[in-house]
């Protein structure tokens, strides 16, 4: 190959290298303009928000500020950890995001369409502070997909915003039925069908109305289960209407040391679990049967464990006949 031909090859190679660099730079700029676009949300101060409406598939949960420490969810006491997580996420302006889709045809796959998306509206004195449609979590659970209601572009928003906004409707409500400190309890009365017993505090000891010794550690464990009594969920209107509490399948009564009532829970047993309510309340909760068994156990569970049966010595084998 002559020097002239070699020079031509070098010039061609350099020309191709320049073209490749220009194309790469163009692709980079194009990516910055499209994929690098972020979702710009207004800063929402926690103190400014007095209500948040969360709507999915036509069903809405209205979160409303009651005072500086309490909110309601559709008029019921709200689960404050859930509300605080949402308010923190709305106020977080540092969460990164990037454009992932520009067309409406992608909305269903990302969960931000009208059938699957969760429409979040934060308000202050009736004025809208922020509106957002939240969808599915991202595959790596580092964030989720969201868009503005009047736009087709969808973004991947990192952080807890999408997770906090798309929780099930029941999770916005406070699942706590009651909270009774162990040292305030002087007696526990349990009725299971026709069988009834009472666990009574006598000084530092406990006694059972059905007789026998009480295992103090088991009694202490029972009392500790009343510190926070939480439901698994809330009965639907049909479930609440079909529940039967007169008479209940089980009844739990907690009494103070002077014998006055602290709490009474009524249980209705169903194939799917328990329906539970207080004797003075209207809300009907759902509860797993094993949780109900912990709260209102059989009296045998409060007695000391039975000692193991002695192992019988094996009989000696007869000598073989000669």
Query: What is the mean predicted local confidence, pLDDT?
Result: 88
Q: Strand order within the widest sheet?
A: 4-3-2-1-6-7-8-9-5
Backbone structural class: alpha+beta
Task: Tell me the radius of gyration.
Answer: 32 Å
What is the tally of beta strands?
19
Q: Span from first to last CA? A: 108 Å
Taken from the alpha-carbon principal axes, the silhouette is extended
Q: What order do the helices and strands follow?
A: HEEEEHEHEEEEHEEEEHEEHEEEEH
Poorly predicted runs: 18-35
Instruction: Assign a percent range to the helix content.
Output: 10-25%
Number of helices: 7
**Could you give a short account of the major beta sheet?**
9 strands, antiparallel
The proportion of strand residues reads 25-35%
Folded structure, characterized:
This protein is an alpha+beta fold and 322 residues long. It has helices at 3-33, 80-91, 107-110, 161-165, 216-224, 237-242, 289-295, and strands at 51-56, 59-65, 71-73, 76-77, 97-101, 118-124, 127-137, 143-147, 154-158, 176-178, 187-192, 195-202, 205-208, 229-230, 233-234, 250-255, 261-270, 273-278, 285-287. Strands 4-3-2-1-6-7-8-9-5 form a 9-stranded antiparallel beta sheet. Strands 13-12-11-16-17-18-19-15 form an 8-stranded antiparallel beta sheet. A hairpin with a 6-residue loop joins strand 18 and strand 19 (285-287). The chain is extended, with a radius of gyration of 32 Å. The protein starts with a helix and ends in a 27-residue tail after the last helix.
């Amino acid at each position: 190959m002559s020097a002239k031909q070699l020079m031509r090859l070098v010039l061609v190679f350099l020309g191709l290298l320049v073209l490749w660099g220009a194309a790469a730079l163009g692709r980079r700029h194009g990516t910055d303009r499209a994929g690098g676009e972020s979702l710009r949300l207004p800063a929402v101060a926690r103190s400014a928000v007095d209500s948040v409406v969360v709507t999915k598939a036509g069903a809405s949960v209205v979160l409303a500020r009651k005072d500086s420490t309490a909110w309601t969810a559709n008029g019921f006491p709200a689960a404050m950890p859930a509300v605080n997580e949402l308010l923190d996420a709305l106020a977080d302006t540092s969460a990164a995001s990037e454009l992932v889709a520009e067309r409406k045809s992608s909305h269903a796959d990302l969960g931000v369409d009208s059938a699957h998306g969760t429409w979040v509206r934060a308000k202050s004195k009736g004025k809208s502070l922020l509106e957002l449609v939240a969808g599915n979590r991202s595959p790596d659970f580092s964030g989720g997909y969201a868009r503005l209601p009047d736009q087709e572009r969808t973004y991947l928003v990192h952080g807890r915003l999408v997770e906090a906004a798309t929780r099930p409707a029941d999770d916005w409500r406070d699942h706590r039925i009651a909270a009774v400190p162990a040292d305030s309890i002087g007696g526990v009365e349990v009725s299971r069908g026709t069988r009834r017993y009472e666990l009574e505090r006598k000084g530092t000891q406990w006694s059972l109305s059905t007789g026998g010794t009480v295992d103090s550690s088991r009694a202490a464990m029972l009392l500790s289960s009343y510190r926070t009594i939480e439901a698994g969920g809330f009965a639907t209107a049909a479930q609440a209407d079909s529940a039967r509490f007169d008479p209940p399948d089980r009844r739990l009564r907690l009494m103070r040391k002077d014998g006055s009532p602290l709490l009474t829970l009524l249980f209705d047993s169903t194939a799917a679990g328990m329906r539970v309510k207080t004797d003075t309340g209207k809300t009907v909760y759902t509860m797993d049967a094993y949780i109900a068994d912990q709260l209102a156990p059989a009296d045998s569970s409060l007695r000391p464990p039975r000692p193991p049966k002695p192992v019988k010595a094996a009989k000696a084998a007869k000598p073989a006949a000669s």
